[in-house]
Design goal:
Elements (H helix, E strand, L loop, with lengths): L1 H41 L1 E8 L9 H18 L8 E8 L5 H11 L7 E3 L4 H14 L3 E3 L17 E3 L4 H15 L3 E7 L6 H15 L3 E7 L5 H10 L4 E5 L2 H13 L8 E5 L19 H7 L3 E6 L5 H16 L10 H22 L7 H8 L2 E4 L4 E4 L8 E9 L4 E9 L4 E4 L11 E2 L8 E2 L11 H60 L1
Parallel strand pairs: 1-2, 1-3, 3-4, 4-5, 6-7, 6-8, 8-9, 9-10
Antiparallel strand pairs: 10-13, 11-12, 13-14, 14-15, 16-17
Helix pairs in contact: 2-10, 2-11, 3-4, 5-6, 7-8, 8-9, 11-12
Length: about 525
């Protein structure tokens, strides 16, 4: 029996000793691994990407994700740009171009207990606004290839942590301003398609409007949706408005408007039409007249009076490889269109590069990845190499806009070429040599008349004939007679009205007194 107790005691002691030893060794290992985990966590760069899953958007997750991951692979392969030991961790969430962007950010922090170090996106203005406010409050850098509306220009308050790697719409307004000053135009008609959802054209025209307003230009605007009679409505509005017209609409809408304008004789140089091609995409304002239908010949003639403003494209050898990889990845996701590489795809690639460059500077100065405001300011007022060429960010955290002007240079073949480039950082518009300006001899500004008028129109009534003078004299006599008759009638009518007013005031006074007496009696009864 004692041996049993001894054996039991020995066994229990041995188990306890083993458990204690394991606990001790595990504690040491746990402490060591905890320290390693903390060090790894310190150098983990969490990037929360907030873009819609819906592939109808040009900036959907399936379209942009390959570009972001291409940038990460390039940084890792480079070996010098990414700070030593640091790793990028990508988290993708559906913004749904709405409130889900904000919810995803809050969920990551509140539920998953993970703080992002960088926000990429959103693009849609209504989704981006609350996220940008929270990023400012939480001191998180936010970089987007969207949020291009003028409302985000003010960076001193709630949008202080936002950097935009695509040109804001107001940057395009600066390009138009330089073009108008070259032509000495100060009046404009802004025509845009209102889709009530993304409102891309509304925000684009708003940016142009703001720049023209600051320059004290005369501005008219006309919004339309693609209803049954929208073409006729647009043409009538233009005929009753200004002769220099800037349009933002879908490619098909632009073509239909230009066809209608051509049939009304508005494409002979008396009107200047400009077309905004948004996002380097065929979805908005593609300047191509050719569709392979029976209207091609007519459209070619109409487009001789149309010039298209688009983002300036510079292509590097590396860009071709990038474009092929993005296209291949998009096709695997079932995306089959011509817009594989657009402004957003390029922009989010460049956003990753910009963040790492800024982070390097901050770390070099003795700060950490948590110093969001310092990282943000390092992304501003700098130029670096993007996937398609140099990217310059101004002192306000917005990318300078470089744009090209495309026009038909051969009316016989319908060939369209770049005729000029605008360089935003220098604020310089350069027209290419040997390019004939279609409108130069035909349009002139007459600020006293209210619209632009063709200067070469023959003057059919420069002098007054004898019959005209006679008509003026007779009209003046008749007008004087009517004025005298109106004077005597008005005097008699005024006397009658005054008498009637005195009677009415008397009756109203009695009625008011009766109403007050009635109120008093009701309050007394209560």
């Amino acid at each position: 029996m004692p041996s049993f107790f001894f054996l039991s005691f020995f066994t229990c002691s041995l188990v306890a000793w083993l458990l204690l030893a394991k606990s001790t060794s595990g504690g040491g290992g746990g402490s060591s691994s905890a320290g390693a985990a903390a060090a790894e966590e310190e150098k983990a760069l969490r990037v929360l990407v907030l873009l819609p899953k819906d592939n109808s958007y040009l900036f959907s997750l399936d379209r942009v994700r390959p570009a972001i991951e291409y940038a990460v692979r390039s940084l890792e392969a480079n070996g010098t740009l990414l700070p030593a030991g640091y790793k990028l961790r990508l988290f993708y969430e559906d913004s749904d171009c709405g409130n889900w962007a904000l919810f995803s950010l809050v969920d990551m922090v509140a539920l998953k207990r993970q703080w992002p170090d960088l926000l990429l996106g959103p693009v849609c203005e209504y989704a981006a606004a609350p996220v940008a406010r929270l990023a400012s409050h939480w001191n998180l850098p936010m970089i987007s290839a969207g949020t291009l509306a003028s409302a985000f220009n003010a960076k001193t308050g709630e949008y202080s942590h936002l950097t935009r790697v695509s040109p804001a719409y107001s940057k395009m307004g600066e390009m138009f301003l330089a073009l108008f000053r070259r032509h000495q135009w100060t009046r404009v008609m802004l025509v845009y398609q209102e889709d009530k959802e993304q409102r891309n054209c509304f925000f684009a025209v708003e940016g142009v409007h703001a720049v023209f307003r600051d320059a004290a230009f005369h501005i008219e605007d006309f919004a339309f949706d693609q209803g049954v009679k929208y073409v006729d409505d647009v043409v009538r509005a233009v005929q009753g408005g200004e002769r220099v017209v800037i349009m933002c609409a879908s490619s098909d809408a632009i073509r239909n408007i230009m066809l209608a304008a051509h049939r009304q004789g508005m494409t002979n140089g008396d009107y200047a039409f400009f077309n905004i091609e948004l996002f380097n995409s065929s979805s908005y304002g593609n300047g191509s007249w050719k569709r392979g239908d029976k209207y091609d010949l007519e459209a070619k003639q109409a487009y001789s009076s149309l010039q298209t403003v688009t983002l300036l494209r510079t292509v590097k050898p590396e860009f071709e490889k990038f474009a092929m990889e993005v296209k291949s990845s998009a096709q695997k996701q079932g995306i089959n269109d011509d817009d594989y590489v657009n402004m957003f795809v390029e922009g989010f690639h460049d956003a990753i590069i910009l963040y790492i460059l800024a982070l390097r500077e901050v770390l070099k100065n003795g700060f950490t990845k948590k110093d969001g405001e310092k990282i943000v300011h390092q992304t501003w007022n700098r130029t670096y190499e993007g996937i398609a060429g140099p990217v310059s960010i101004d002192a306000n955290g917005d990318r300078y806009g470089d744009f090209s002007l495309i026009a038909m240079t051969d009316p016989e073949t319908g060939t369209q070429q770049v005729i000029g480039n605008y360089y935003g950082k220098q604020g310089r518009l350069e027209m290419l040599p040997n390019i004939n300006d279609f409108w130069e001899p035909k349009l002139r500004i007459d600020d006293n008349r209210g619209t632009e008028h063709p200067s070469n129109t023959p003057c059919k009534s420069c002098g007054l004939g004898e019959s005209a003078v006679t008509g003026i004299v007779v009209g003046a006599l008749l007008g004087a007679g009517l004025l005298m008759a109106f004077y005597f009638f008005r005097k008699k009518y005024k006397i009658t009205i005054e008498r009637r007013s005195q009677l009415e005031e008397y009756n109203i006074g009695k009625h008011r007194q009766l109403r007050e007496d009635s109120i008093r009696s009701h309050f007394s009864a209560a």
